[in-house]
Amino acid sequence: MKKELLVFLVLSLMVFGVFAAGSSTGSVAADEQANKTRENADFFRTNEVAKAKRNCEDVVNRTDRITCRLDYIKENRRAYVAPLDSIPESCRNLSAEKKAACRVFYQKSAACFEQEGRAKNKCFKRIANFVRAKLKDENPSERGAKARDYIVLLLYDLQEKIEGAIESGKVTSEEGALAIDKIVAIKELILQGKSKDEIRPLLVDLRTTIGTLREDIDNE
Amino acid sequence: MNKWVVGGIILLLVVVGFFAFSMYDGEDTSLDEESAPATIDEVSDEQFAEVESSDAVLNEIDDSVGYLD
Questions:
Q1: Does the distance separating the beta carbons of A130 and B40 come in below 8 Å?
Q2: pLDDT value for B35
Q3: Which of B38, B51, B62 sits opposite A121 (nearest CB)?
Q4: Alpha-carbon gap: A215 to the closest alpha carbon of chain B (Å)
Q5: How many domains does chain B have?
Q6: Which of A67, A168, A184, B8 has the fewest Cβ atoms surrounding its Cβ within 10 A?
Q7: How many Cα atoms are found within 13 Å in the side-chain-facing hemisphere of A32?
Q8: Contact criterion met (CB below 8 Å) for B54 and A158
Q9: CA neighbours closer than 13 Å in the CB half-sphere of residue A174
């Protein structure tokens, strides 16, 4: 009787072992299948994203290009990362030489947007070639050029905040496009070397536009 | 005799005053040179402003526009 019981137990264990191994293999196969499906979905999504971005960059009108990028942010709930070979919006109307420098300037500034508070401000000033913490303490002969670069970065920061608010659904892409279009127009004038008298009225207008979105932008 | 003493004292005061002024002036300049950083990385983070809210960014832009040519 004891012998029969022992044989039964050994057989039961063997059957259980085979079943467990089979189900485990099945689960690995199912995981592999799921991974493949996910990879395929990612591949197609990436291609669609690339296509959507390329379409935005090829739009002729500036306001439409901006709206296209913001619609992408609204629909995908993620930041719009322009294709590597694209020219930043405010650099597009510059001469070929200035355009290249402008592009490098934007690329260098990307790291600053990963920082916050004082570190971010210091990073902006480093990119704008500051030597001191305050613009008023900079060498007067170089202050104008440094101010231009610093203002462009501050405007870019404001633009990033608006895009963040669109991404989180607090600001509509239409409202955002209105503000960002004005920001880009001011950046273009600054990069073209226009005087403060030409820039100030546009800043007053921008402040009014931002005023209606302020709470949504700052609470983002 | 008194004239020479008074003249001597005045001359002494002028010379001492001149040296004191030039020493002070020199010290001030050297302090300025010492405090001038070679790069922004030598400046402490504490000296930079936190420009976070949209209002703060706009105010900083307004201030900076004043330095444009």
A1: yes
A2: 62
A3: B51
A4: 9
A5: 1
A6: B8
A7: 6
A8: yes
A9: 0
Calpha distance A107→A47 (Å, rounded): 24
Rounded to whole angstroms, what are the CA distances from B39 to A114, A145, B31, B44?
Answer: 22, 17, 17, 11
Radius of gyration of chain B (CA): 25
Using CB atoms, pick whichever of B46, B54, B62 lies closest to residue A158. B54
Q: What is the Cα–Cα distance from A159 to A218, expressed in whole angstroms?
A: 12
Tell me A135's DSSP state. G
Q: Measured between CB atoms, which of A122, A136, A157 is closest to B57?
A: A157
**CA distance linking residue A133 with residue A118, whole number of Å:** 10
The end-to-end CA distance of chain B, in Å, is 65
Which residues of chain B lie closer than 8 angstroms to A210, CB-CB? 54, 58
Show the domain range for B53: 2-65
Q: Are A132 and B39 in contact (CB under 8 A)?
A: no
Count of CB atoms within 10 A of residue A87's CB?
16
Q: Which residues contact A147 (CB under 8 A, 6 or more apart)?
A: A135, B64, B65, B67, B68
What is this model's ipTM? 0.73
B23 HSE (CA, 13 A, CB side): 6
pLDDT tens figures, A156-171: 999 999 999 999 999 9
Return the structure tokens found at B24.
């002070």
SS3 of B35-49: HCCCCHHHCCHHHCC
The Cα of A122 is separated from the nearest Cα of chain B by a number of Å equal to 6
pTM for the full predicted model: 0.70
The rounded distance, in Å, linking the Cα atoms of B25 and A76 is: 64
